[in-house]
Design a protein that fits this description.
Elements: E1 4-8, H1 16-24, E2 29-32, H2 53-60, E3 65-69, H3 79-87, H4 96-100, E4 106-110
Parallel strand pairs: 1-2, 1-3, 3-4
């Protein structure tokens, strides 16, 4: 059985994106990025102990499918999703071993 996780990047926890997720995927695990501390990407790939990006990725790798859900703000993804995607760069740098565990995962996008 395929397992899936939803990464929800809305700034409004109870807004349209969250409602759509609940309707389409009522039984799926959902991570709301607004609930986590994710620092901006930096070229040194050094972050404070408060940064939670790696803990999110460590959970995400346990699922077969990753669904990225974002509202569209000013013709683009939310800033939370942009920061999250920027941080994926860490997974081809200092965290390459962890990043390789994402190979073969299915993805979907909800906007």
């Amino acid at each position: 059985m395929e397992t899936q996780i939803i990464i929800n990047s809305t700034h409004n926890k109870y807004g349209n994106t969250s409602q759509l997720i609940k309707k389409l995927y009522p039984n799926s695990k959902s991570i709301k990025l607004i609930d986590y501390k994710i620092e901006l990407y930096n070229y040194d790939e050094k972050y404070s102990d408060n940064d939670e990006f790696l803990s999110i990725i460590s959970e995400v790798i346990n699922y077969d499918k990753i669904i990225f859900a974002t509202p569209v703000y000013w013709y683009s993804m939310s800033s939370l999703m942009k920061i999250f995607f920027d941080r994926i760069t860490d997974l081809i740098g200092t965290q390459e071993e962890l990043g390789r565990k994402l190979m073969g995962k299915k993805i979907e996008v909800i906007t």
